Amino acid sequence: MRVTPETVAAEREWTRERAPEVVAVINETRDALGELFGTDVADVTVAAYRREVDAVFADGDLAVNVAALVALMRDLDVTADYPGFVVDELLGRELAGMIAGTQPLRLLGEATFHYADARTHGTGDDRAGADDLRIVQRVRCLFRSERISPD
Description:
- By secondary structure, the protein is mainly α.
- It has one domain (5-146).
- It is 70% helix and 0% strand.
- The protein has helices spanning 5-17, 19-37, 46-58, 60-75, 85-100, 105-119, 130-143.
- Helix 1 (5-17) crosses helix 4, helix 3 (46-58) packs across helix 7 and helix 4 packs antiparallel against helix 5 (85-100).
- The longest helix is centred in the N-terminal third of the chain and has 19 residues, at 19-37.
- The radius of gyration is 15 Å and the shape is globular.
- 34% of the residues are buried.
């Protein structure tokens, strides 16, 4: 794999374009966690999600690593999916932690990825890493609420 500035830009655009789908999943997860822990959690908007994508991809070193992991997960496929569970779990948790930030948000991001992964399943035509990317893309919005206004 070769990661160039063009690769990073393409992964940023791909991630931004998925906003409507990802925001719906973010809000489902926020609702489920809010219910689980007995608290109200505000919804995230498409605009807030895109701001967070822009923030991640504006951080040079982080952007390169996030772009590489997203590209790997987009291309990951394993016959019958289950044998790929370990590798897509590993990549997904690492990406979720990286996006969430420093501790304790990193650990919360990884744990939330695992929780959401058990609740999210792709279609039979999806690659093994596709459903995990839907989960990972919501992690930053789940835990960066101090930076996300419900606009």
